[in-house]
Amino acid sequence: MIPILIGLKLLNHLNKENGSMFKEMIHYFSNEGKR
Question: Considering the entire predicted model, what is its pTM?
Fold first, then answer.
């Protein structure tokens, strides 16, 4: 689960710079969760 924690930190950083990147990462994690 550590990669997820790192991912969340990246999401927080990306969200401040680019909202679209944030949405893409959310979509990626959503797909990973379905596997």
Answer: 0.35
Question: DSSP labels for the chain?
Answer: -HHHHHHHHHHHHHHHH-HHHHHHHHHHHHHHHH-
Q: In angstroms, rounded to a whole number, what is the distance separating the alpha carbons of residues 1 and 16? A: 24
Answer whether residue 30 shows pLDDT above 80: yes
Contact 9, 34 (CB under 8 A): no
Q: pLDDT averaged over the chain?
A: 76
Q: How far apart are CA 27 and CA 33, in angstroms?
A: 10
